[in-house]
Every structure is written in structure tokens, then in C-alpha cells.
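Sharing a chain and its predicted structure for anyone who wants a worked example. Both blocks are below, sequence first, C-alpha cells second.
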Amino acid sequence: MVQTPNQPLALTDLRYGDVEPGDWFDTPRRRITAADIDNFAALTGDKFEIHMSDEAAQAQGFPSRVAHGLLVLSIVDGLKNQSEARFDAVASLSWDSSFRRPVLIGDTLFARVTVKSKRRTRNPERGIFELDFAVFNQQDETVQSGTNTLMVKC
């Protein structure tokens, strides 16, 4: 079933022909916890002080510990894949992300994913979507934004 452009997407296993530039969806919401930050720091080894200590974060002008930008990006990718609308993807090819505001423990995030463009590949069974994403906190402030290049099935 083909979606009308510029309408919210609500189908799963969306393929190249199901989606047009301007189509969009919102991901589920997720609350950021201290455990998220601690686990990400343990996994990656990124124990930069603003992530690990309220005092260090406050010394740099933040109200409390700040979530890693890459943690938020990883969570956004997971939320994208948990959404009601999901792409029948082959692989994520790239991410370009801007960290616009700090994400703090207790913030609740969601992303709006919009199809910016699409193109065919040399392989007739695959296409490429360029997806814009904007990540919002509970005050509807943009905390991250960028693009994801995604290979999908045709």
C-alpha cells in the first residue's frame, strides 16, 4: 500500500515504493536514566566527567550529568526500529548528527523521522532513503538533529 506524501507513516516493512519524500513518523518515547549513561560509559569507555558526575557537569554550566551524544543517537536508532512505521531495511549506511542541547537524566525523548529523498541503486532490489531526524525532549526542544542514510528493499 502506498502512503500519501507528507502524511504520517503507519505501516511496517515499508519498502522503496511505499514511501515518498515528505512522509514522516514519530518514534515511541523513552526516558533517559542514570543507568543508561553508566552502561554506555562502561560499554564504550567514554567516562568523560560531565557524563559521570553532577559536580563536574555543574562546573561546566550544566544542571546535572549529561547523556553522551552518541548514546542519544543510538537510542534514536533503536526507537526508529521500534516504531509503528518501520522500513524493510538492509543496512544503515551513514549518520550525520548535531548535538543541539544537552540531554539530562530524566529527559524523555522521541524523534520525528522524515523521508528527505530517495533514489534507486544499481541493484534493482535495493533503494536508498535519506532520512531527516529531529530529536525532541519533553519540552519539545530539539536536542539532536541530522540525517540517516538507509538502504531499503524495493
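Comments welcome. The mean pLDDT is 94.
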